[in-house]
Amino acid sequence: KNEVEQSPQNLTAQEGEFITINCSYSVGISALHWLQQHPGGGIVSLFMLSSGKKKHGRLIATINIQEKHSSLHITASHPRDSAVYICAVPRDSNYQLIWGAGTKLIIKP
Amino acid sequence: ETGVTQSPTHLIKTRGQQVTLRCSSQSGHNTVSWYQQALGQGPQFIFQYYREEENGRGNFPPRFSGLQFPNYSSELNVNALELDDSALYLCASSGRTNTGELFFGEGSRLTVL
């Protein structure tokens, strides 16, 4: 079992739909990162959160430390949201990020 | 724009050659991490530098080495290149190890022929 698991692996939706991507982890963490990677491109950090909820524009990230689960939501999705979304957690008392396998999101116009 | 710049963006080398990749970190960030991302896979941690010292290393052989300068910019050096070294190399800067927000560069795509 992977230490960080994401679901779904692939997600195709129509423009305007509400999107949810889930991340479960089994290691103790101080913070969880949500990142976005466009095809062939670098990675953009979307959120770093250690509790509760954060919102940035149409993106919302939540985390439940007790349940070791986080979700990334996209409201009013748009084709430009198409990318791979990755959650990553640092190992307990370590610096090395453990990466989820990523969720490939395609938003159709 | 993250303020993290990597160079070169693309390069092609042949097996056995050496390569140096560069990363300038976000202003004020003293920690730089390097990752290797093979095509279709997730990033793999190579090593991290904190205030010019190596602060941890992933499962990579010694021919992968690094350096961090007083201005916190960093280099990744790979000697005796192998075909499997072909990948996107990403650097990420942060203000503090492990808990700070990360800023990634666009990556350097290395092709080894």
Question: Please, could you describe this protein's structure?
Answer:
The complex is a heterodimer of chains A (109) and B (113). With 109 residues, chain A is mainly beta. Chain A is 0% helix and 58% strand. Chain A is built from no helices and eleven strands. In chain A, a hairpin with a 5-residue loop joins strand 4 and strand 5 (43-49). The mean pLDDT of chain A is 90. The model of chain B has no long low-confidence stretch (mean pLDDT 89). In chain B, a hairpin with a 5-residue loop joins strand 7 and strand 8 (74-78). Chain B is globular and about 40 Å long.
Number of helices of chain B: 0
Order of helices and strands of chain B: EEEEEEEEEEE
The tally of strands of chain A reads 11
Sheet of most strands of chain B: 7 strands, mixed
Anisotropy-based shape of chain A: globular
The overall pLDDT average of chain B reads: 89
Q: What global shape of chain B is seen?
A: globular
Unreliable runs of chain B, pLDDT <50, ≥5 residues? none
Strand content of chain A: over 45%
Class by SSE composition of chain A: mainly beta
Low-confidence stretches of chain A: none
SS content category of chain B: mainly beta
| Mean pLDDT value of chain A | 90
Number of helices of chain A: 0
What's the total number of strands of chain B?
11
Give the chain pair forming the largest contact, with residue counts. A-B, 22 and 25 residues
Radius of gyration of chain A using CA atoms only: 13 Å
Strand content of chain B: over 45%
From the alpha carbons, calculate the radius of gyration of chain B and give it in angstroms.
13 Å
Helix percent of chain B reads under 10%
Helical coverage of chain A, percent range: under 10%
